[in-house]
Structure prediction request, 658 residues.
Amino acid sequence: MASNEDVDVKHLPNFEDGLKRSVDANVANGPDVDLSISEDSLNQQSLLPMFLTTKAWFIFTLSLASIVAFGAAAWGFQIITGMGVANLNHPVFWGMYIATFVFWVGVSHSGTMVSSILRLVKANWRRPILRGAEAMTTFSLLVAGMFPLIHVGRLWRVYYMFPLPNQRELWPNLRSPLAWDMTAITVYLTASSIFLYVGLLPDIALARDLCPKNHWRKIYFRVLALGWRGTHRQWLVYEKVSMLLAVFVLLIAPSVHTIVSWDFAMSITPIWHTTIFGPYFVVGAIYSGVAGVITLMILLRWVFGLDKIIKVVHLANLSKMLLLMSIIWTYFYFTDFLVAWYANNPAEQAVRSWEHHRFGVHAWLMLSCSVITICGLSWNRIRNSPVMLFGITAWVNLAMYIERYLIVVPVLSHRDNPFTWTDYTPSFVEISIACGAFAYFFLLYAVFIKLMPIVTIADVREGKVLTADMAVGNTHVRVYGNPEAH
Amino acid sequence: MKPTVLGLFDSIEKTAKTAGPILDLSIEKKDISLLTAGPYPDGAYFHEDFHPPIWKVAFVGGLLGLCAGLFIAGWTQWIINLNVGGKDPVSFPVVALICYETTNLGIVLGSFLSLFWFARLPNWTDLAYDEEISNGRIGVLVQCEDSSQASKVEDIFNSHGAIGIKNGRGDY
Prediction:
């Protein structure tokens, strides 16, 4: 059931057409750029998620908002009552909060990074998925950024962490990886937000033009478009700046998750204190992030009928990246595990033994994910099935959350001194806050879709201009133009 | 204020054919602008002799970022020294790490500012434009010396299949 907003049908005609699920299979499964799609239809399809508000969206968003409210209440309860309501105690001071933080930083990793890589290598199939991926980065970083605040407990004293000359008898300890972490995440969030906004600029201008007069969205589109007219000079500047941003965002991204890994690896703690932790974290982050991008793209296709723009070929190409990352992650995991196992260091063996005993099911669930992903995505039929891909990518993210949990908890509960060994189970408050964070991410995404174009329309349009079908004998092949060839 | 003419076309091929005749009217390239909803390769209309030094702004941003990093990580450690176990007052790996982040941030911010500067944004005044451009139409905006030149440009647009023409003044 569609409840159209009061929109000008001249500009955005007949939204129900866009919602029809009877999308031509040849179009949805066809090549990456649909050359037959008209300019009007491209605009309409791309802006559809923003202007068409279904009851399902309302129910979904309200449900998310309720979970977020519950999580916020749990956080409030923790602030008022004190950190005792979390089951964090010596020696397990890092529990679900830090595992969730690492998970969301990991998810954030891929969006902007994938977008940058695909822009830099000029992959033609990148076009429709860029915005969704970039938005994923920004929102997952916003979610991740909450967790240090939740974790420190007395968040009103968070400014103690800032390296400011002060009279508080405190010395900012810049040798602590936590200070590096805060710097890196702030930098990545700023760079990702700028990257997202620069990509949005031409599409905001397009939405400004197509939005009917007196529509409430017109006001902020007009402000945020900054007077963009799409002059050739503006496009030249835009393309150069986009490329430059892509390069430097790409330089920032791996450093962020490496620094997150150093929160662990810089301590003299068994299992954590390994040189491979940096790249292992980066690989894991890209792995879960690519899975997250695929999950979101499939949801966009299903919920907003974007089958004509986000096609099966885009998902299949992303799933090849996921397959590659799955293989690399598995290799890193076993390299890390095997060296520790072969060395037979008693402190590390104690942790592994405890992990096997206490978290055996979790560990097997996590490892089964990489087996399923590698085996499943090796089949073309599965790579071309959105339903199967949705299942696999959701499974990957569940497994990667478990992986984060297994990195944090077993090590702390069985550290060097056996008389401090303990167990840890997250409290109801911790679980509520973690669930609230998950809902918060999806809520931010759902609201963003209503406020901004989720498809990179200008890029898709450029793809149409630079793509053609060429006859070769009795068949046709798709050719992509390279503007820099002349 | 100089008169402007905005011609709207429905294909790049038709649009491109107007470039030669307009340039023949002794109108400079800087007074001609192609308006599109998506990027077209340089030369689709004519080659722009426009090379904005974006990298210079980014470089300056990077230098400022580096200075900020040195200030935050180096200077803070130096003046508020936490003297522990005979360690050096300034930890150079830390300075390098934070400088890496802040330098990159400076470059990103510099690039972002250069977008504003070289694309002449923001500009919320009513400049020559047509919302049909967002529907895939292609606009050619010409700033003319006088009204007789403007009428010649209009003739060129009409003879090459323009689907719409708008006239303005001082809104290039």
